[in-house]
Amino acid sequence: MKKQLAVVLGLSVLATPAFASKARLQALGEDTNGSFYINDNRNVFLNPSEVNNHKDLVSLEFGAAAPTATDSTVSPNAEGGLFRAHNNMVYGAQFGRNLSFNDGVGLGAGTVGADNAIDLFVGGDAGIKWGAQATYAKSENDATDSEVGVIDLAGGVTAGDIAGYLKYGVQGKEEATGGVEVERKNALEIGASYKFDNYTAFGQYAMSKFEEDATDADAENSSFQVGVGRSDKLNDKATLFTKLSYVNEKSEEDTGVSEEDKQWSVPVVIGLEYDATSWLVLRASISQAIMSKVDNESAPARDGTLAETTSVNAGASLKFGELSVDGVIGNGIGAAPVSDDTSGGQGQIRTDSLMSRASVTYRF
Fold first, then answer.
1. Pairing, β 79-86 against β 57-61
2. Which of 23, 117, 266, 296 could form a disulfide with 261 if both were Cys (CB 3.0 to 4.6 A apart)?
3. Whose CA is closest to 54, among 119, 121, 117, 128?
4. Is 37 in contact with 229 (CB distance < 8 Å)?
């Protein structure tokens, strides 16, 4: 009887989903830098206090060696790190995470990202879980007389079912060839969540302001979202994830002509994760903005509602004991590259690129 019980417990451990990667969160319709309601080690980048829940692991994300302006399935950036517990403390470091702080700002200097980014973490549990994060990156090119530098700080706490965090951009500066300089003057993000039953209610506010010295142009972005997510264990193999939220975004630019773009949307996400075998986990999701409104001064021809927002993503994890290999299920047409979701491949699954945005995670 004891031997049978040991076998059952062993299989239950093997069947636990691999909480592991950007690929997993994308496949479930979430942001690759963390989720308010889905348990994943990437949540440390949303709330640093999550390091207490994801310790003693090595995580490696495959991708390009050089940073890209955006991180996506088509052009992922390489990153990885180690989180380890010592006594009642947790320490960690992540290398290569995308830090294109100027991405999406319509001012001068290019959005090239910062080389050799480093995230350092420390956390502990003294009845209340806490965590702190420091981010640093600096790149210089004397031949082109260009420079990019970023310093960010973040802190978070989790007290039972309540969690909150604060992020602050200490420095963000980009100097491009010809003396064009863009500086981040303000950057702030704050968020909180509350768990009750199978639900998690959450809210988040973010803002950033940039100035270009040469032309005295400036840009300011702000956004907030509120929502609720639910996780349901349908049986011993399947977990259903659902989320409903309201997202409001605004950007203002003054480059001689002042323009303001605004939009809001109500996205719905439905995801499913299934333990197909003791060594294979499959997952997929569908998301759509069921309501939206766009009001763009920069492109008034696009006022109305958001263009087609329906998106299907899929992914898988291969588990080998404490090691797991994750990926987004690749798709595309002919020689075209893989797409961010299965709709980009017109329903085809590419066996020549079955798992893109691949990662490896080992827990010890």
1. antiparallel
2. 296
3. 121
4. yes
Q: How far is CA 128 from the centre of its chain?
A: 25
Residue with tokens 């773009």: 261
Ranked by mean pLDDT, the top range of 179-188, 256-265, 275-284 is 275-284
Number of alpha carbons in the 13 Å side-chain half-sphere of residue 172: 26
Calpha distance 232→354 (Å, rounded): 28
Give, for 170, the enclosing helix (H) or strand (E): strand 162-175
Residue 139 to residue 285: CA distance in whole angstroms: 38
pLDDT exceeds cutoff 80 at 241: yes
Q: Which residue in 294, 277, 355, 364 sits closest to 322, CA to CA?
A: 364
**Amino acid identity, residue 353?**
S
Tokens matching residue 101: 């702080």
Q: How many CB atoms lie within 10 A of CB 347?
A: 8
By three-state DSSP, how is residue 341 classified?
A: coil
Task: Write out the two tokens for 186.
Answer: 């303000």
Provide the pairing of β-strand 181-196 with 162-175: antiparallel
Q: How large is the C-alpha radius of gyration of the chain?
A: 21
| Tens-place pLDDT, residues 347-363 | 666 666 678 888 999 99
Two tokens at 237?
């193999």
Counting Cβ atoms within 10 Å, is residue 13 exposed (0-12), middle (13-18) or buried (19+)?
Answer: exposed
Q: Is 2.40.160 the CATH number for 16-363?
A: yes
Buried b (16+ CB within 10 A) or exposed e, 298-322: eeeeeeeebeeeebbbbbbbebeee
Q: Give pTM, 2 decimals.
A: 0.87
Return the domain boundaries, the chain: 16-363
Confidence of residue 194 (pLDDT cuts 50, 70, 90): very high
Residue 61 neighbours by CB under 8 Å, 6+ apart: 21, 22, 76, 77, 78, 79, 80, 96, 357, 359
Please state the φ and ψ torsions of residue 293, each to the nearest 5 degrees.
-150, 130
Q: Give the CA dihedral 331, 77, 203, 270, nearest 10 degrees.
A: 10
Residue 189's CB is within 10 A of a number of other CB atoms, namely: 18
